[in-house]
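TA notes. Do not distribute before section.
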Amino acid sequence: MRWKYSLAAAMIVLLAGAEFLAAEPPAEGRWLPIAELTDEFEGDTLDGAKWHDRNPTWKGRQPGWFSPDNVTVSDGKLQLTARAENLADPAPGYHTFTTAAVKSKAKVLYGYFEIKCKPMDSRASSAFWFYAQDPGKEKTAWWTEIDMFEIGGGSPAHERKVHMNVHVFVTPDEGKRHWSKPRAWTAPFRLADDFHVYSLLWTKEQLTFYVDGQARYTLANTHWHQPLHMNFDSETMPDWFGLPKKENLPSTFSIEYVRSWKKQ
């Protein structure tokens, strides 16, 4: 069953015999859907008006290459797959694995964003994140990032960890100075075993990260005031989750929906 959302109240969703609270915008204020960043992934093709089936400015984290062939829509879900395969003519540094990326064509500044998804059961990552690299001139350059989650669903010691983070690479006031504020929440369940709701409340004052409607990380918004692209992807993370094991591939990161709102 496909669940449709209501802005009036939170709803209790039953999935695989377990209850969890589906997130939605806070009750305070009036929230309007952001159509270009909302998708129920019905039909059998990705909506090209909203999404790139790759990252146009990045080939992937080596050695895994972002392949558009690994981005599909089926069974009412966006499917991002990692595979063990060698391409015929890859760029230098890419070999052994292909992964997948979807990037929004629109940018957004502040809002409430949620997805219902099941991470892949692989050491290849499953991620929901926002970023933009706007070079500009020295005094106008911006490059920031918000990682709602990065999950290594099949990586030992990471199967239950939701890794959340924010990054600052370049700002007009501070120039080039990369720093981040990571936080990991350990779930009472194995993340790749089922669908859960992951969401981000991003305001001018603070950022709050939720899992199944419960706040897991909150921090002051000191730097994230740049319009950002929304991203879903899978990457090889050899120094973090370890390279995927070929016998565990292909593996798929399944996203049932993405829903986005802005405050009026």
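Switch to the second chain here.
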Amino acid sequence: MAGEKWYAQGLRFSCTQCGNCCSGEPGYVWATKEEISRIAAFLGRTDGWLDKQHLRRVGLRYSLTEKPDGDCVFLKRENGKSLCTIYDVRPLQCRTWPFWDENLRTPEAWDAAHVKCPGMNSGKHHDYVQIEITRTRRSW
């Protein structure tokens, strides 16, 4: 129930295009086969797949690749802003930031994520229902 969650009154978040959620420590941006196909079509690839420059296999799953500096391969920086070049078809993992379970576990976890994300705690108010819909989404 909303009364049991520390964020029951909602949270504020608006993307500032800082790119911090798309860069940094090595990690994974998981993409399903359906998402890979959408990205490939968006990029004009007729084979419906991405090459090793854009995609890597991790066990039984797929992750977008990173540039040597830690940026997502699809992150473009210019004029002090960071832009996702596949924004319209970005994977669900990207679409649901910052409303991830790990960030919503406690107020302290949220605050720790806020250190790297200036869009958290500012901008648009997201009510509890909106947050839960985003947090529990399994496909787009």
